[in-house]
């Protein structure tokens, strides 16, 4: 996909990785950029096409799909992390909140924008996942579960949307230097570096973007080549949908 010819929507664009993505899309000459936030006033002055969007709010998701009818590049970046364990947490409140945003919110966006992308020639749908989509770090056990679920939904969307020409892309990264990890004193990659690698992967047509060294190392360590298995699954899906 050629970024300079695309019309993009970035969720969670007011800070962190979303802010970097909007800035780098602009630098790459992206034709039109919708920047979405729960509080559009936080988007700053340079934003031409602000969108009010809480991805857990069904009315706002529907309204965004209508407002952003010309989008052919959707970047589902919005996400939360509560940094609590799964069973040792005081309640299931954090686990539910993470699932509502990272899984159900992203799913709602995929469902609402699949027809938009189809009308605009297929385009690309990018979900910002994590390295913890692949394993569980128990200090943040419920976040990892939600990112695993989001990874699985990304693969489901890829199967379902391939026939309409939509490239579904999963982004994996380790720690990024944003508000989300402000309390952690660990090695982190700058959000600009991650955003740059995401845009390069979109341009190349990757389906899986390993956006930092940690993602590259863990992908090799934890997972084999599941391409042939997924190709067989794609055929099973395609055969079950003869009219598509
Ligand atoms: N930081 C990391 O180490 C890291 C690593 C791998 C993957 N990721 C993923 O990268 C993505 C961006 O994270 P970040 O590091 O930039 O985090 P961040 O600095 O905390 O920013 C999160 C963004 O998501 C928005 N958001 C949260 N809930 C939302 C909702 N219900 N509807 C719409 N927007 C919502 C926030 O909006 P408000 O300002 O309104 O809260 C904010 O704009 C997330 O999906 C995260 O899981 C992060």
Task: Give the secondary structure arrangement, pairings included.
Layout: E1 7-10, H1 16-27, E2 32-37, E3 49-52, H2 58-67, E4 73-76, H3 93-119, E5 124-128, H4 141-161, E6 167-172, H5 191-204, E7 208-210, H6 213-222, H7 227-240
Parallel strand pairs: 1-2, 1-4, 2-3, 4-5, 5-6, 6-7
Helix pairs in contact: 1-5, 2-3, 3-4
Could you name the key traits of this structure?
single chain, alpha/beta, Rossmann fold, 7-stranded parallel beta sheet, 7 helices, globular, binds NADP nicotinamide-adenine-dinucleotide phosphate
What does this protein look like?
This protein is α/β, with parallel strands linked by helices and 244 residues long. The protein has seven helices and seven strands. It has a seven-stranded parallel beta sheet with strand order 3-2-1-4-5-6-7, with helices on both faces. The longest helix has 27 residues. The radius of gyration is 17 Å and the shape is globular. The site of NADP nicotinamide-adenine-dinucleotide phosphate has 29 residues, from helix 1 and helix 3.
Structure, briefly:
The chain is of the alpha/beta class. It has seven helices and seven strands; from the N terminus they run E-H-E-E-H-E-H-E-H-E-H-E-H-H.
